[in-house]
Amino acid sequence: MAENYNGMAVGIFELDSFAACFVALDAASKAANVRIQNIERNRLGAGACVKMRGSVSDVTAAMEAAIRTAEPIAKVVSHTVIASPAHDTEPAMYMTANK
């Protein structure tokens, strides 16, 4: 089932603990109106990368809550908020890491 994410901001964070990602996502989803797009195990083994979508203000608030919750229990590998990665006429953007 394809989701329509056109015009939505994307927030991405990576933690070194898969379990901590779910704790952080719980905090993020309670802090703001975001849609969880994807949770992906990273190739290093224990961690994961999480992508969430919503308005810029919602994704920013959710990201702050997720990182604040994750920091005491896991290493935050990276995190970012992208305001609007694709326009309605462009294909969806996919991010990959070169490791």
TrEMBL record:
Localization: Bacterial microcompartment
Leader sequence segment: none
Domain of life (superkingdom): Bacteria
InterPro entries, sorted: BMC_dom, BMC_shell, CcmK-like_sf, CcmK/CsoS1_BMC
Keywords: Bacterial microcompartment
Positions in coiled-coil regions: none
Taxonomic lineage: Bacteria, Bacillati, Bacillota, Clostridia, Lachnospirales
UniProt record similarity statement: Belongs to the bacterial microcompartments protein family.
Gene3D superfamilies listed in its UniProt record: 3.30.70.1710
Species assigned in the record: Blautia intestinalis
SMART domains: BMC
Primary subcellular site in the record, as a coarse category: other
Record-given protein name: BMC domain-containing protein
Domain BMC: 9-94
SUPFAM superfamilies: CcmK-like
